[in-house]
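During the no-cost extension, the postdoctoral fellow (Dr. R.K.) reprocessed legacy sequence entries with the updated structure-token encoder. One reprocessed record is reproduced below for audit purposes.
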Amino acid sequence: MATSGTYTFNPSLGEITLYAYNLIGLRNTSLLQEHLEAARMAANMLCSNWSNRGVNLWAVDLVSVPLVQGQKTYNVDLNTVTMLDAYMVIDNGNGQPIDRIILPVSRTEYASYPNKDTQGFTTTFWFDRLISPNPTVTLWPVPDGTSAQYLKYYRVRQIQDAAFQNVTTTGTFQTGTQVEIPYLWMEAFAYGLATRLAIIWAPDKVQMLKPLADEAYTVAAEQNVETAAQYISPQISGYYRP
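Re-encoded structure tokens follow.
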């Protein structure tokens, strides 16, 4: 059996848009500039929706922040959706830095700390999800500077903007930027985009497309998890006395 031998299928936003419009019954040659504007907006709204639904593993990265003695609050990039695991790196200059996990606290718990300027080894962080000028992360106790210290944290960032490029006047796409999604999510994106476009251009197709979009999302989301095993067991040693 002959196969392609390639793994390069990665359609541009323009190609996915054409497919989405085909799903709602619009031919490529019938598309106008207003169709493309609607598709660009719908694609970015879909990415926003996915960022709200949970952790997109392909949009998780590791951030390293050098810490300053006595400084408790640090800026976080605006494109950060949420912070995940965080840990302190203690570098004593011996070539063997030590990592220690720190835990998140709520605004209420941080507010309950009587002395927020206490310096010592940091054990907790509070992520303040501001819009302007930046989100921030506040550490407690405040870094004491006894050695070189870094805060490292995994974060979920926004999916990059969906954008068209080099669209011809006839509605064809010579080249284009790809949507920042992995191969396994392409069907979910196409059906999700088609459903949003159907609301505008073909309302009679929404009832048919919505279940398909939901099913495709569910299938992709079930695969979008880490595969490490987790074990939970009760600690019962304290139940018994010698």
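The radius of gyration is 24 Å. The chain has a mean pLDDT of 90. The remaining legacy entries will be reprocessed before the final report is submitted.
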